[in-house]
Amino acid sequence: MFVDSDTSDHELVIGALEDADNFGQIIDRYEKPLDRYIRSISGAKQDDREDLLQEIFLAVYQNLRSYKPSIKFSSWIYRIAHNKTVSWWRKHKKELSDISVEEHIDFVTTLFNENNIEQDIERSHLVAATKYSLENIKEQYRQILILGFWEEKSYKEIADIMRSSVGTVGTRMKRAKKQFISKFKEYEQN
């Protein structure tokens, strides 16, 4: 099966169902984004992330026939990644030591612009404050911020991933932003 960037996820799924050798195309498309997502919500080191990715892709492969096109494939695969990662994190209770804030610093700027906080903070200080804030908010809020701002998922996609309603996502997003900003200000005062 020839795959290019215009090949839809639905076409990839059909191709993988017709011939297992085509499953590699799904891995090629989702390995980097899922690795970034795993790192963002768990702080897992590279070896642990590679193990998690293997578990995730195995689960995707084993459950591919149960995928329903009524949900975006990306939401479905992120849901599997989310469940596997949260289970791993709960077993290991890791800090977010490997979180890569630098590549997503625009997320913080966006939150600050919404709340009229000065933008002239040194980048290194901004990174440290962001990492502190993410480490010290509730897990569900960290996950929703990462999905919304870093992974650029819509509220509908987040609702599918987190198995909740769009309204709940909206409410949690507001709470997550408020909690993040509160922790950021707390960091600033120390």
Word description of this protein:
This protein has 190 residues and is an all-alpha fold. It folds into two domains: 9-92, Rna Polymerase Sigma Factor, Chain: A; 102-189, Arc Repressor Mutant, subunit A (Orthogonal Bundle). Helices cover 71% and strands 0% of the residues. The protein contains nine helices and no strands. The chain has helices at residues 9-18, 23-42, 46-63, 73-92, 105-114, 123-135, 139-150, 155-162, 166-189. It starts with 8 loop residues before the first helix and ends with a helix.
Descriptive tags:
190 residues; Arc Repressor Mutant, subunit A; Rna Polymerase Sigma Factor, Chain: A; 0% strand; mainly alpha; 9 helices
* Class from secondary-structure proportions: mainly alpha
Number of strands: 0
Q: What separation lies between the terminal Cα atoms?
A: 57 Å
Mean pLDDT score, rounded? 83
CATH fold field value of the largest domain: Arc Repressor Mutant, subunit A
Brief summary:
By secondary structure, this protein is an all-alpha fold. The protein contains nine helices and no strands. The chain is globular, with a radius of gyration of 18 Å.
